[in-house]
What we know:
Helix content of chain A is 41%, strand content 14%.
Amino acid sequence: xxxxxxxxxxxxxxxxxxxxxxxxxxxxxxxxxxxxxxxxxxxxxxxxxxxxxxxxxxxxxxxxxxxxxxxxxxxxxxxxxxxxxxxxxxxxxxxxxxxxxxxxxxxxxxxxxxxxxxxxxxxxxxxxxxxxxxxxxxxxxxxxxxxxxxxxxxxxxxxxxxxxxxxxxxxxxxxxxxxxxxxxxxxxxxxxxxxxxxxxxxxxxxxxxxxxxxxxxxxxxxxxxxxxxxxxxxxxxxxxxxxxxxxxxxxxxxxxxxxxxxxxxxxxxxxxxxxxxxxxxxxxxxxxxxxxxxxxxxxxxxxxxxxxxxxxxxxxxxxxxxxxxxxxxxxxxxxxxxxxxxxxxxxxxxxxxxxxxxxxxxxxxxxxxxxxxxxxxxxxxxxxxxxxxxxxxxxxxxxxxxxxxxxxxxxxxxxxxxxxxxxxxxxxxxxxxxxxxxxxxxxxxxxxxxxxxxxxxxxxxxxxxxxxxxxxxxxxxxxxxxxxxxxxxxxxxxxxxxxxx
Amino acid sequence: xxxxxxxxxxxxxxxxxxxxxxxxxxxxxxxxxxxxxxxxxxxxxxxxxxxxxxxxxxxxxxxxxxxxxxxxxxxxxxxxxxxxxxxxxxxxxxxxxxxxxxxxxxxxxxxxxxxxxxxxxxxxxxxxxxxxxxxxxxxxxxxxxxxxxxxxxxxxxxx
Lengths: 501, 159
C-alpha cells in the first residue's frame, strides 16, 4: 500500500466531495468501503486519480463512486439515515439467546473442552428444577419478542429430567407472555435414547451436535468411555433426521446441525471435513477456529496453531464447498454467510459475536448450573476457569433490569463499538465486523483488545479478504452462489406459538 | 518517558501531559495478572509505574515494551472515544435502553420517589392513548432469534 503513495508522491491531495471512507488493497485492486457498508473496487490508476484530486463530475470514476453512495453531493441523506437505523435495529430487541448450563457433568472427554466439564459423579454441578424455573422467569422478562432457550453443559442429556421440567415450565409460563419461544440443545448425542428423542421432537427442540470431521479425528479428540463417540453421533444424527422426515418436514431445512471445532489436527483435512458434513446431510458448515476458553486454554500446545494456517485451511475448505455448489450441492459456510449477508445487502444476521456492539449481555445471557448469571457463555467459561469478571448477577437476587443495567454490561457494550477502537476505527471491514470482548479479555487481559495482535481479528480480516477477492474477481457463477448463501429460510416448525392466553 | 530495568521489575516514568492519568491506570491494569503494580507521583505531572513480575525470570525489557505499547493504545483509544463521544453515547443508550425496557411494577415500588423524580413517567401513564400507541414508521423490525437456517449456530458451542 505504501508503494501506491510513493507513486502519487507530492501530487497527493485530499479527495474532495466524498463521504468518509476507508480503503485496503485486495488482490491488486483497492477496496473502498463507507459508513453505510457500501463498497467499490478501484484500480490503482483510478485510486491514483482520486488521490490527486482528479475526480471530474460526470467521469466514469465519478459515476462509479456516486452509484455506491461515495459522493457527498449525490448522497440521499434521509435514505442513508434509514439504512443505518435498519442495520442497527437489533439494538431495540434485548437478549434473545438464553443459555442454560443444566450440568457440567459430561460423558465425553474432549481435548479442547470449552465448558470445563466435570466428571459423571459430580452431581453437585446439576442445575436444580428451582433454579431452572428462575432462569425461565428471567428469560421471559426480556424485551425481545422472540427468545431462544439453549441447553448446554457439560452434556445436557445427563440432567435430562431437569431439562424436561424447564421446557414444560417455560411453555406454561409463556402463555402469559406470548413470546415466540424456541428451544435448542447442544449435545454429543451419546446418551440419547428413543424416549428422550420422542420428547425432544414433540416439544420442537432443535438439536445441535459436534462433529470434528472424519471418524479418525473425531474419536481421537472426543473420548467416549466404553464407546465410539463418532459412531454414536452419526447414528443419532441419522435417526433424528429420519424423525423430521416422518413428521413431513423438508429435510433440506430440518436436520441436525453439527458444529466443527477446528483443531491443529483438523487443519490437514479441509476436503475430508467438508465431505463428512455433506455426507451427514448438513447444509451449513461453520469452520470455527478453536476458542481459547476452558480446557482449550490449557491444551493450547496440542490444539492451537498459527492463524495463517487456519486461513489456508479455510480457503481450501470453502473452495471445495464452492465446487460442490457448482455441481449442484446446496451447502454453505456459515462465517462466509454471516459476512456476505452484511456485505451484499443491508440485512444484519444478528450473529452475536460479529456485530457492533456485541451481544454480550444485551443479546445473550448465560445461566450457570448454580444460578450465577453471565454476560455470555464465554464469560461463564471464564468463571469456570477461575475468573468471575463477567458475572452480572444470579437468579436468586437479580432482576432483569438490574442485569441489563449492570456496569459490566455497559462496559462490554462500549468496548465492542467498532468505531471507538484503535485499528477498527480505520479498518476497511468496520461496517461488517464485530468485536468479542471476552476473547480480548481472555487472550490480552483487556476487554478493549489490541486488534493488531488479536487472533480473532486475524481470522475475521482473512475471511473478509478472501470473500472480497471473490467479489472483485466477479465470476458470475461464484457470485450467484455467494448471494444464495445470504438467503434466510425460516424454520417456523421450531417456533412455539406467540399467542398469549 | 523513561524506564529503568531492575531484577524482575521495571519502572516507567511518564509525563501526564502526554499520557492522561486514566490511560496510565488502564494500561497498568492490564498487567495485574502478571505483575504487582505500583503507581507513584515522582514530581509535578510525572507519574512512575512500577511493574514487579509475579514469576521469577521475567523478561523485563519485554515487559517495559509491552507496557509502553499498551499505554499508547489506551491513550489513543481515549482520544478516539473523545472524538466519537456523541456516537458512542447514542449507540450505548439505545443498546442498553432497548435491552432493559421500561421499569416493571416491582421496580417502581422500590423506587426512591423524591422531589427530583416525582414527575418522571417511565411507564408513560400520563401519556394519551394516541401518543403511546401511535404507529411507528420505517422498516418493520424483524424479531431476532427467529429460527432460520443462517442463525441456527448462534451462540452454540462445541459440547
